[in-house]
UniProtKB/TrEMBL annotation:
<feature type="transmembrane region" description="Helical">
    <location>
        <begin position="188"/>
        <end position="205"/>
    </location>
</feature>
<feature type="transmembrane region" description="Helical">
    <location>
        <begin position="120"/>
        <end position="140"/>
    </location>
</feature>
<keyword id="KW-0812">Transmembrane</keyword>
<dbReference type="InterPro" id="IPR022764">
    <property type="entry name" value="Peptidase_S54_rhomboid_dom"/>
</dbReference>
<keyword id="KW-0472">Membrane</keyword>
<dbReference type="Pfam" id="PF01694">
    <property type="entry name" value="Rhomboid"/>
</dbReference>
<protein>
    <submittedName>
        <fullName>Rhomboid family intramembrane serine protease</fullName>
    </submittedName>
</protein>
<feature type="transmembrane region" description="Helical">
    <location>
        <begin position="12"/>
        <end position="34"/>
    </location>
</feature>
<keyword id="KW-0645">Protease</keyword>
<feature type="transmembrane region" description="Helical">
    <location>
        <begin position="147"/>
        <end position="168"/>
    </location>
</feature>
<comment type="similarity">
    <text>Belongs to the peptidase S54 family.</text>
</comment>
<keyword id="KW-1133">Transmembrane helix</keyword>
<feature type="transmembrane region" description="Helical">
    <location>
        <begin position="64"/>
        <end position="84"/>
    </location>
</feature>
<dbReference type="GO" id="GO:0016020">
    <property type="term" value="C:membrane"/>
</dbReference>
<dbReference type="InterPro" id="IPR035952">
    <property type="entry name" value="Rhomboid-like_sf"/>
</dbReference>
<keyword id="KW-0378">Hydrolase</keyword>
<dbReference type="GO" id="GO:0004252">
    <property type="term" value="F:serine-type endopeptidase activity"/>
</dbReference>
Amino acid sequence: MLFPIGDEQVKGGYFPLFSYGFIVLNIAVFVLQLSSPGMLVGEYAAVPAEIQRGENWPTLLTSMFLHGSFGHLLGNMLFLWVFADNIEATVGNFRFLIFYLLGGMAAHVGHIYFNMGSIVPTVGASGAISAVMGAYLVMFPASRIKLWFFFFIFRVPAFIFLGIWIYMQWSSGWTSIQEGGSSGGVAWWAHIGGFVFGAAAGLYFRSAYPMERVEEVY
């Protein structure tokens, strides 16, 4: 499997306080989950059917910081670490904070729309991180992403990697609909909803906050 492990970095800009802070926060919350198995998910995960009834709205936010497994957490934090800092460095700390949270909300909208009445709890930062990836695709399409594949490390332009990624989400999302809503435990439409929101926000960011883009890949 391909894993992104680095990218080209913005020169100067704002220190990515929230990009790194969210990584720390998500890890801390996961440690709490391990100390009280099931309790945090049962209390703070978002359930589409409840949201539709106007219940437990705060879970739209709290669920973004919960994860179903260590692998779920690791994958999300890796993508957040690679893609978020350039955006925050460009647009500023508090703009990034608002963008990230709104991206998570947009992801919930996409998931709930295609999972009406579902009582399956939803957790994870991947919707908000998908928004980050959508914005990255628009803002830094030519940035080289460093990928790790078993014993090989190579680089590809962001538009190729992220283009393939969103195609896979879209394909899996439509397959889940054709199979009667079976998603294999993955909220594909949350990923798609977040990504679309992020791409739209990226169009605005690209014009409103131009700056020197990159330096060496790390």
